[in-house]
């Protein structure tokens, strides 16, 4: 089945059907961790429970008093007592409504506080996770854990937990009150509850498969919409509009057919429950009336009155509680997904390592091997020596392991074998942050945050001055276009820096590398789609940037390659050749072939 | 809102649209009978030692109305669901039709369009459901409740005329007060989502520049804002339930007290008081539901506005063939200007002349208008001024279908569709044979990776071709255009993700395949266009130079610079 991730869930009423079952072990672990958050709020929770008991008792007693008033004060016209008891009730209700408000008030505080702290925990855990974690977990999935799943937990806390609790108090309290007043009518109320339950279950079971089909068809429909609209230009150019539309209409029809089946049956649930309630209403009246005539068990008009209200107050919470069990299942599944991230193993702690002072920039890789999966080495026995200030160009075909090599330098991944030393110190002995503060990186597709241009540059060295920013931007050939932006350096970048061209984004990331003033530089040159004029700007800026720095460059530009102190040619994770441009051309090997392929067009 | 619904329903669906609320009135009516019947049992059935016949007869009526209510409710649901789903279906079809057929579709971005056709249509669907069900049920239950209460116990009905307006005003005020707070909360949530998403997408940058602390602080601030905004919003509405409860309870007490006093004068019966209280409870519930419905309507309002924007997109009248397709394949741009709706010119005064069978190269900075230029040629957009001729005929005189059969494009974004490799390649020509497909694949250097897939040409393509690498998608993109065997082929920067060796292979094969046929190539690499008969150099929407490679090396400083960078040291120039 085709699936549009992230799209189906939003309007899936019945997503819990597709959730996997939790094992008991996970369940107790998850509950324990959830409980851990609630324990912090135990005083507030206790207050909420207390208020709940008060409001519930007032409501039960009040309802019974209504009946008593009918029987003892109205029917027998005792007006003075009526006034007194009515005043008492007004006081009682006012008092209870204040408690009711307090109960809600605390609940909002508890649930928002807890949500915020769960969100905090998942975020701060994510900050400490190794890069491998992000390679294995798609960002869409992690994002949905941080948003949808945290929301679900919040719902569980805010609604489920409290409603379950108030539900139980109400149900037990009312059951006791009803049994005391009239066991016979209590049976009627209980039969009605049972009826509601049975109908709901039966309909839920009957419609479950229809709902699954409806959700599946909706998923197919949505991904078809997405795919079609994204490919609009191609569809128009190849004159496929009519055929695509007729396919779409068929899918649309299938969705509507399934959706109708699901909604037709599930829509009868409300009216059915309503009917059961009305039948119980009738039963209480009729049975009550007959009992009064026959003089059974002290049933009075007031008792009937009380029970008619109890019926509504009793069935409401019971029906809620049934819904809540579904919500609870969903929330626990969500909690488990959230805690999976919170509990993931972070990068090893390096507090015990000595801080590293300044670095000169001699980098040595010795017999380095690495693989993302254990046992599968992507890089095999790499040895490279770069003297301070040298430029090392790494070239090779796509997938040769160039990017992996430079990722190892910044300890983004741990080595499988071999060592990397900087100024003779093994990088294992250097704190990650110390190491990374000494290396500036320009990525192939630079990432900019939705802050202002200035703030983005400042990320390279947060304590730099505004003057430094301008200097860096000038050095990066970025100053001129920045000044043309609506608010210059203070122009906010939109999400994904879509308001800049790709070349401009690169220039900004070069400025960021400039301002960092590091002895080491890693540069992953862009391969594609940079326009020619900007390309010149970039080339000039990077050449400047590389001066006086030990630079590792994944090179695609001829000029970079030609000017490099050494060229490392990588293929299939191994170094196949090394030397200068001239040496390598003369050797007429792999490099020469690679080089010539670019210019073979000119000769033909 | 209503006219959109009306236009997207027909025949029986429209009948359902009215039948559903009408039947719903039956359920409301049935529900409202219960307290009155109950009062009848209490007052008449129990009078003078009891009257079993009255009790049983009235009881049967109560059961009857309970069952009738159920059938009416279910019937309303059946008709309402049908109308709403059919409306949704028609609306979706209509929107897709419009979205796919409009050309100058710059007003609404693709992601927005997708959300609108998926989520907003579902919203509209739910709206119809609400309109036919809750929108009728709640207000009528409210009104009916008041009427019935007034009939059954007219002496204390005045209580309702105080309580109901007070509660309605109060609820309205709370909602008016809380809506901006909820909007603020939503904005805070959007912001924190942005912070979290950027941290995820930019995780490598975060780690490389040791930005964890900075990101964390930023997150903490936002997280606190979300918490505060959520607390504020929710605190604004939690007062609703205690107030409604207390007002209801006090009115019940009032009913008992005033009822009790009237009872001494035999002006009111026990049953009437009880029925009145029961109606009061029904009325309060109906009031809460009415408010819910109203707020759900305002949410649907946004969806409606967003959908209307799509419906109002300009669309083309169908064109009939008046001119025969020219045999020649020359391309001529004559003082062509182009601007997106009301914006500045993207292309200004473009003039060039390409002879039949020649090769055209286009080079220039990003945003210089290269892609727009070829989009005009295929009439994805129409020129703002000037004219374009193909084979000597103004392209506006040709139908879109004629034009696009003559020209095939391999666009810059290589979009693949779910299906198979073959089904994607056949976009070029539905009648293409397997041999045709293989040949095109070979020219585009796609044969090497197609053959590694088990099912070859029948290998599956997942959504947007996500199971292929960027370079592979680009090669299939080229092959697809080649399958069309077009008179004019346009290649829009199609080898940017292909490695250099493969690129060279493709260029060689294309040169062979397109010998003597008109071909337009947009390129970043000069090597791809160096042998063109005519090269256009674009800068900021203007044609700054044109000529052959050799001519441009002499005449265009810009071109010289580019050649210098890419070909290096001038050794090959």
Automatic annotation (TrEMBL), chain B:
Keywords: ATP-binding, Cell membrane, Membrane, Nucleotide-binding, Transmembrane, Transmembrane helix, Transport. Its main location: membrane. The keyword ATP-binding applies. This is Abc-type multidrug transport system, atpase and permease component. It is found in: Cell membrane. GO terms for molecular function: ABC-type oligopeptide transporter activity; ATP binding; ATP hydrolysis activity. PANTHER family: ATP-BINDING CASSETTE SUB-FAMILY B MEMBER 10, MITOCHONDRIAL, ATP-DEPENDENT PERMEASE MDL1, MITOCHONDRIAL. The keyword Cell cycle does not apply. It is a multi-pass membrane protein. The chain crosses the membrane at residues 54-79, 134-152, 158-179, 237-259. GO terms for cellular component: plasma membrane. Pfam families: ABC_membrane (PF00664), ABC_tran (PF00005). Residues 18-299 form the ABC transmembrane type-1 domain. Residues 331-565 form the ABC transporter domain. SMART domains: AAA.
């Amino acid at each position: 089945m085709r699936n549009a991730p992230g799209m189906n869930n939003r309007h899936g009423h019945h997503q819990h059907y597709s959730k996997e079952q939790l094992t008991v072990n996970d369940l107790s672990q998850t509950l324990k961790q959830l409980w851990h958050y609630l324990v912090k709020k135990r005083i507030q929770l206790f207050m909420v429970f207390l208020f709940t008991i008060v409001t519930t008792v007032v409501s039960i007693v009040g309802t019974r008093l209504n009946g008593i008033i009918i029987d003892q004060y109205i029917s027998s016209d005792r007006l003075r007592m009526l006034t007194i008891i009515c005043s008492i009730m007004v006081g009682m209700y006012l008092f209870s409504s204040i408690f009711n408000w307090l109960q809600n008030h605390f609940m909002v505080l508890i649930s928002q506080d807890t949500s915020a702290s769960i969100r905090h925990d998942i975020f701060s855990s994510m900050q400490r996770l190794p890069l491998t974690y992000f390679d294995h977990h798609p960002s869409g999935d992690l994002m949905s854990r941080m948003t949808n799943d945290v929301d679900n937990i919040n719902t569980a806390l805010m609604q489920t937990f409290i409603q379950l609790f108030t539900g139980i108090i109400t149900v037990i309290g009312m059951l006791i009150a009803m049994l005391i007043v009239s066991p016979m009518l209590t049976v009627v109320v209980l039969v009605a509850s049972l009826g509601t339950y049975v109908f709901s279950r039966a309909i839920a079971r009957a419609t479950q498969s229809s709902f699954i089909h409806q959700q599946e068809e909706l998923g197919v429909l949505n991904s078809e919409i997405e795919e079609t609209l994204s490919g609009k230009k191609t569809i128009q150019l190849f004159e496929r509009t009519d055929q695509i539309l007729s396919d779409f209409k068929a899918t649309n029809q299938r969705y509507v057919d399934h959706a109708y089946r699901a909604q037709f049956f599930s829509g009868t649930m409300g009216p059915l429950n309503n009917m059961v309630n009305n039948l119980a209403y009738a039963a209480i009246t009729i049975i009550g009336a007959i009992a009064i005539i026959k003089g059974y068990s002290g049933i009075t008009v007031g008792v009937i009155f009380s029970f008619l209200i109890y019926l509504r107050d009793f069935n409401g919470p019971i029906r809620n509680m049934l819904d809540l069990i579904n919500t609870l299942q969903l929330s626990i599944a969500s909690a488990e997904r959230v805690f999976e991230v919170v509990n993931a193993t972070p990068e090893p702690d390096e507090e015990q390592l000595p801080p590293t002072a300044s670095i000169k920039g001699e980098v040595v890789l010795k017999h380095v091997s690495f693989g993302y999966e254990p046992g599968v080495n992507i890089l095999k026995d790499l040895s490279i020596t770069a003297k301070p200030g040298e430029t090392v160009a790494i070239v090779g075909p796509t997938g040769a392991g160039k990017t992996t090599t430079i990722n190892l330098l910044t300890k983004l991944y741990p080595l499988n074998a071999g060592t990397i030393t900087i100024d003779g110190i093994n990088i294992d002995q250097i704190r990650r942050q110390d190491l990374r503060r000494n290396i500036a990186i320009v990525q192939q597709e630079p990432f900019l945050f939705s802050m202002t241009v200035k703030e983005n540059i400042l990320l390279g060295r947060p304590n730099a001055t505004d003057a430094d920013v301008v200097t860096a931007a000038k050095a990066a050939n970025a100053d001129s276009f920045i000044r043309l932006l609506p608010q210059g350096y203070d122009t906010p970048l939109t999400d994904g820096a879509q308001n800049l061209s790709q070349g401009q984004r690169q220039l900004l990331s070069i400025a960021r590398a400039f301002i960092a003033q590091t002895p080491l530089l890693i540069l992953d040159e862009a391969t594609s789609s940079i326009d020619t004029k900007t390309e010149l700007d970039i080339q000039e800026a990077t050449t400047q940037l590389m001066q006086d720095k030990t630079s590792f460059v994944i090179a695609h530009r001829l000029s970079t390659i030609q000017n490099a102190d050494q060229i490392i040619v990588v293929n299939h994770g191994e170094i196949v050749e090394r030397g200068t441009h001239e040496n390598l051309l003369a050797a007429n090997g792999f490099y020469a072939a690679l080089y010539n392929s670019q210019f073979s067009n000119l000769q033909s | 809102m209503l006219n959109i619904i009306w236009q997207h329903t027909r025949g029986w669906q429209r009948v359902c649209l009215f039948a559903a609320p009408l039947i719903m009135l039956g359920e409301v009516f049935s529900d409202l009978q219960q307290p009155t019947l109950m009062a009848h049992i209490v007052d008449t059935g129990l009078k003078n030692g009891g009257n079993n016949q009255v009790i049983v007869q009235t009881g049967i009526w109560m059961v009857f109305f309970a069952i009738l209510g159920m059938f009416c409710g279910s019937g309303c649901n059946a008709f309402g669901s049908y109308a709403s789903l059919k409306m949704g279906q028609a609306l979706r079809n209509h929107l897709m039709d419009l979205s796919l057929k409009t050309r100058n579709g710059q007003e609404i971005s693709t992601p927005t369009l997708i959300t609108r056709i998926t989520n907003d249509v579902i919203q509209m669907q739910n709206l119809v459901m609400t309109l036919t069900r809750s929108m009728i049920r709640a207000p009528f239950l409210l009104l009916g409740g008041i009427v019935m209460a007034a009939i059954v116990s007219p002496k204390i009905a005045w209580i309702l005329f105080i309580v109901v307006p007070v509660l309605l005003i109060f609820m309205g005020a709370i909602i008016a007060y809380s809506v901006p707070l909820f909007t603020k909360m939503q904005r805070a949530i959007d912001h924190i989502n942005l912070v979290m998403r950027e941290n995820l997408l930019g995780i490598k940058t975060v780690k490389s520049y040791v930005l964890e602390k900075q990101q964390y602080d930023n997150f903490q601030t936002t997280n606190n804002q979300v918490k505060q905004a959520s607390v504020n919003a929710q605190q604004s509405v939690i007062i609703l339930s205690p107030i409604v409860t207390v007002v209801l309870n006090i009115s019940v007490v009032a009913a008992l007290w005033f009822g009790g006093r009237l009872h001494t004068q035999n002006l009111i019966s026990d049953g009437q008081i009880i029925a009145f209280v029961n109606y009061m409870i029904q009325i309060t519930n109906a009031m809460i539901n009415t408010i819910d419905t109203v707020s759900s309507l305002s949410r649907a309002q946004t969806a409606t506005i967003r959908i209307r924007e799509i419906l109002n997109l300009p669309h083309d009248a169908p064109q009939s063939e008046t001119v025969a397709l020219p045999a020649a394949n020359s391309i001529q741009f004559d003082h062509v200007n182009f601007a997106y709706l009301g914006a500045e010119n993207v292309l200004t005064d473009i003039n060039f002349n390409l002879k039949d069978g020649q090769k055209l190269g286009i080079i220039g900075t990003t945003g210089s208008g290269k892609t727009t230029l070829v989009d005009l040629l295929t009439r994805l957009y129409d020129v703002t001024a000037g004219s374009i001729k193909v084979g000597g005929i103004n392209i506006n005189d040709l139908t879109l279908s004629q034009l696009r059969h003559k020209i095939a494009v391999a666009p810059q974004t290589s979009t693949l569709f779910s299906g198979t490799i073959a089904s994607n390649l056949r976009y070029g020509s539905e009648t293409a044979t397997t041999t045709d497909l293989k040949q095109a694949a070979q020219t585009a250097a796609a044969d090497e990776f197609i053959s590694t897939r088990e099912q070859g040409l029948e290998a599956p393509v997942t959504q947007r071709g996500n199971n292929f690498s960027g370079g592979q998608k680009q090669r299939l993109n080229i092959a697809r255009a080649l399958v069309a065997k077009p008179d004019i082929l346009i290649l829009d920067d199609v080898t940017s993700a292909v490695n250099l060796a493969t690129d060279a292979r493709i260029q060689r094969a294309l040169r062979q395949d397109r010998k003597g046929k008109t071909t337009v190539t947009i390129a970043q690499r000069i090597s791809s266009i160096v042998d063109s008969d005519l090269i256009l150099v674009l800068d900021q929407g203007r044609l700054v130079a044109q000529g052959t490679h050799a001519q441009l090396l002499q005449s265009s400083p810009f071109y010289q610079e580019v050649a210098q960078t890419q070909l290096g040291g001038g050794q090959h120039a």
